[in-house]
Every structure is written in structure tokens, then in C-alpha cells.
């Protein structure tokens, strides 16, 4: 189980790093950082709306869990192994949603940090302005949080489909 978690964390870091490199290339070669969507206040609003939406979806999904769990337990055509696997997938789906919500939350904190850093004069005299790190971070976070929101919706849709299938099977067996 721990190896699976480590692999998931490593994969996430690799994907975010790849998005970061692509974002840096885009920021360096195009005027995308001047688009109003990447203004700090707009990004903060966007992430705030996303986290609110994500928490609402999570709460809605949690309300379905007990219903799905009871339907899995009472399903006559499923073996105990199949029931256990379905329940593990159900728990895994909510763990995935939780991770996506934390990603959105941390993105808010990073945007705030870069907004503050952008306004503070460089005390060390480092010439890093040409790297456009705040702009790269903003674009990277915009892309990753949008993907996280898509993942949350996809997971909830899958849970809803499981619930619908269990409802069909329950009605068919009556």
C-alpha cells in the first residue's frame, strides 16, 4: 500500500514538473502571462471558486457513500471478493478527490506567496526576473488545478454510474 502511495506521489510530481517546464516555455515565448486570467486576483478568485465547487462535490459524493455501500453489501450477485474490491475502489475514489482538493488549496497558498514575492524587492541581488517564475507558477497552477477539477468531476461521475448500475441490478432482482 505504501509503495502504491509513493508511486502516486512520484507520478504526480513528474506530471506537475512536466507541466511546469511546458508552462515556463509558453511564458517565455508568448505573451500569455499578460492575459487577465493570470492576474493574481483573478487566479485567487478562480481557485477559490474551484475549491468551493470541489468541496461541494465532495460533500455530495459523501452523501452517496452509505447508499452505495449498503447496495454493495446487499447485492446478491456479487461475491465477497467483488464486494470488497468495489468498496476499496469507492474509498480510493474519495481519497483521490481529497488529494485534488488539497492540490487546489495549496495552489491558493502558492499564488499568494508568489504575489507577495513579486512585490518585494530582491534582497540578494539575484538576477532572476528573466526566469519569470511567478508567471510560470501561475500558469502551472492554473493548468494543474483545472486538471484536478476535471479529475474530481470524473471520479464523481464514476461513483454515480456505480450507484445507477447497483440500482438497476437491485430493481432487476426484485
UniProtKB/TrEMBL annotation:
Superkingdom in the source lineage? Bacteria
From the record, give the transmembrane residue ranges. Answer: 9-28, 43-65, 86-117, 137-159
Keywords in alphabetical order, please: Membrane, Transmembrane, Transmembrane helix
Protein name per its UniProtKB record: DUF2975 domain-containing protein
